From TrEMBL:
Keywords: ATP-binding, DNA damage, DNA recombination, DNA repair, DNA-binding, Nucleotide-binding, Nucleus. This is RecA family profile 1 domain-containing protein. GO terms for molecular function: ATP binding; ATP-dependent activity, acting on DNA; ATP-dependent DNA damage sensor activity; double-stranded DNA binding; single-stranded DNA binding. InterPro entries: AAA+_ATPase, DNA_recomb/repair_RecA-like, HHH_XRCC3_RAD51B, P-loop_NTPase, Rad51_C, RAD51B, RecA_ATP-bd.
Length: 364
């Protein structure tokens, strides 16, 4: 609960105003300071500083829950609170679908199907509950201008023809999806700051950022004016806060970057010296997820979209509900479709690799 905003803690008004005036916006901002430093920042005595620490600690501390209570909540929410992807094998591996209250990353090379996957998720979140949807609104942050309402409607018509034959339903679904297209990180952060009110007041059930890496690359990793830390850290913290306190799925797409052999990253398919250059020619580059280690540790679920041996795969590379497994898929007029609901086990360094070509080591 370190990211819990002070403004949501229902502190005494005088203390809330004092913390806001000193730009102590989250529980972490307050609790990470020594008492002496907090006294100096607040320009107050020791009793006030200790009272602030005690009240913020009490508000931010998560309540204790038993394993039985967690199990009962999972049953009540139907699978622990998840957005089903309608890809049966993938949903089973994820324990029912994309988890609510968590960050889910979709990473892969350009053109592999990440946006197609996000469009289907947006549609599913907007569908009425009696059709398997969440019956809510969707905030879709489109940083690469790839969102296509026409394509989304096509996916709906092909996936749920009995639903979209109803007059006006397609327009109703499209009207539930709010598309935001920030061109700078400053626009993006402003949208996020304003979004919490929108999430609470307009029954938003899904937040998609497509893509985070593209937005960060525009800033060239420069610190934005007004932020005391790297902009990626602030954005990551805020996205986790939105997921946790709004209890909605947050799906973020990520790009890939090349990783040379000199960087010390080795894949299981790398050839032995005795094989010479014959096999090495099969691989032009090694790909890894962009945004770095800090981002990778913060996400709860990582879905890797990769292509090799003439097939595309969705790989569950990170999930508390599943071992690393992969599913072959194709992109059709109805969106992403699995070729098989039977998972393929993924082991060793193959879990973290992202491939675009070469031999099919998943089928070994």
């Amino acid at each position: 609960m370190a990211n819990m905003p002070v403004s949501e803690m229902r502190l005494p008004p005088h203390l809330a105003h004092l913390l806001a005036a000193r730009r102590l916006d989250t529980a972490k901002d307050v609790l990470s300071l020594p008492e002496v430093e907090l006294m100096a920042i607040l320009d107050a005595g020791l009793p006030t500083a200790r009272a602030a620490v005690a009240l913020v600690s009490e508000a931010a501390c998560p309540p204790c829950q038993t394993a039985l209570a967690l199990l009962e909540e999972r049953v009540r929410l139907g699978g622990g609170g998840r957005l089903a992807t309608t890809l049966c094998g993938l949903d089973e591996a994820l324990g029912g679908g994309i988890p609510m209250g968590k960050l889910t990353e979709v990473v892969g090379p350009s053109g592999i199907g990440k946006t197609q996957f996000c469009l289907k998720l947006a549609l599913l979140a907007a569908l009425p509950e009696y059709y398997g949807g969440l019956d809510g609104r969707v905030v879709y942050i489109d940083t690469e201008f790839k969102f296509s309402s026409r394509r989304m409607i096509e996916i709906g018509q092909k996936s749920f023809p009995q639903i979209f034959r109803q007059e006006g339903l397609a327009q109703k679904m499209a009207g539930r999806i709010l598309v935001i297209r920030p061109t700078t990180l400053a626009d993006f952060t402003k949208s996020l700051e304003e979004m919490k009110v929108t999430l609470l007041q307009h029954d938003v059930k899904l937040l998609i950022v497509d893509s985070m890496a593209a937005l960060m690359s525009l800033e060239n990793e420069k610190v934005t004016a007004g932020f005391s830390q790297h902009p990626l850290r602030w954005t990551l913290s805020f996205l986790k806060s939105i997921a946790e306190f709004s209890r909605i799925p947050v799906v973020v797409t990520n790009q890939v970057r090349s990783q040379s052999n000199d960087d010390g990253y080795h894949f299981s398919f790398e050839v032995d010296k005795k094989d010479g250059n014959k096999c090495a020619e099969k691989f032009d580059s090694h790909l890894v997820a962009a945004l770095g280690i800090q981002w990778a540790h913060a996400i709860t679920v990582r879905l890797v979209f990769e292509s090799h041996s003439g097939h595309r795969f969705i790989k569950v590379a990170k999930s508390p509900m599943s071992p690393a497994v992969a599913f072959p898929f194709v992109v059709e007029s109805s969106g992403i479709t699995l070729l098989s609901d039977e998972s393929i086990d993924v082991t060793g360094p193959e879990i973290t690799s992202i491939r675009c070509q070469g031999q099919n080591v998943l089928s070994r």
